[in-house]
Amino acid sequence: MDDIKAAGILRSLAADVGPAGASPLTDVAALQTPDVVSAFVLAAEALESRTRLQRRQANLPRNAGKPWSREEDDRLLASFDGGANVDQLTAQHERTRAGIEARLVKHGRLEVEQAPAARIR
Predict the structure, then answer these.
(1) What is the pLDDT of residues 54-89, one digit of tens each?
(2) Which of 10, 23, 90, 117 has the fewest CB atoms inside 10 Å of its own CB, making it the most exposed?
(3) Is 0.70 topped by the overall pTM?
């Protein structure tokens, strides 16, 4: 079952309309039809997935995954060239270690072998 169909079934049930269009929903057995059960399962999985994603994002730095601007690249490279280490750069730019290392590899400041966190991407 696709997500759109599952959402339609769930919305119908929320409006007290059975999956076959019968209103009001009086036949509790209708809740055990394969489509309704599939819709409930998909909804539960979507909510669990959303919760996992929110927890993951809550633990990431503010700028993780955001595009890099030319100005931020310039600041990153100037700081690195000035002696800042990767840990300092992660704090300054509010990005993950892998993100910082990947950017430094991209701009030729680190070799891939020097960027262990960037390799797991």
Answers:
(1) 887 788 999 998 999 999 999 999 999 999 999 999
(2) 23
(3) no
